[in-house]
Amino acid sequence: MLKNFIAFVILFLVVLDCILFFTLVLRYNDENTSKEDQFNSAWIKMKAIDSPVKLTQKQINDDKLEKMQYDFRTSELSSIIPIPQDYNTTNLIVYESLDIEAPINYSVMEDFFETYRDSAVINYSKLADFKAIQDLMIKGSVHYAFTPMPGEIGNSYFVGHSSDPLGGGGEFVDIFRNLEDSGKIGDVFVIYDNYGRKLPFRVYEAKRISSNSPDIAYFTEKDRRVVTLQTSVDDTSQRWIVRGELIWYDFENLLKESKQ
Hints:
Layout: H1 2-31, H2 35-46, H3 57-74, E1 92-95, E2 100-106, E3 113-115, E4 122-127, H4 131-137, E5 141-143, E6 154-159, E7 188-192, E8 198-210, H5 214-217, E9 225-233, E10 238-246, H6 249-259
Parallel strand pairs: 2-5, 6-9
Antiparallel strand pairs: 1-2, 1-7, 3-4, 5-6, 7-8, 8-10, 9-10
């Protein structure tokens, strides 16, 4: 009886030593797995690959580019360009090559449409006079309330004077003067939004349009992050518009890397 007990204890200790040994080996292997293997493993799981395929760096980059491109066309701006914790500048358009620094003033829908008498409800069937917008334009550029905020998906629209049409003077009455016939494809301008984000835009279109062409001016972009800058030209019967698309430098840098 005693011999059987001793034999059982010895066998138990041997099994316990084996378990401890293999546990240490597995832990060592896990801790010493390369970052590349860990990254590959994560991508394999995410893409539901059952076999232990080792992805190349190009495949990893291509997958990241695909996901980033999807996010760029669909996600909230904050998931692409996060709101900074520390910032010094807000609500400003800087078009350095044209020497433009234009404070941003945000309009509201009541600036465009009248409200019902004795009510704050907006009457969208009746346009208001342009006085509220003109008052804002004396202070700099104006963002149109019926368009997206800068950097969001769609066509975010800004206007600014190129001259002093009312003759009232002021620091910003011709803030977009240098924009007229000068904005060029390939230029980059920056918008500092009301959260302090620095949003760069690359110009892809610059042209004159009729003041009676709202379908051209305010057209909606469904999957692009566009900003349009507008100013009046000649006798105000025409507009000069410059359109730029948001630049996501992380995406562009990875795209360049994948092509090397």
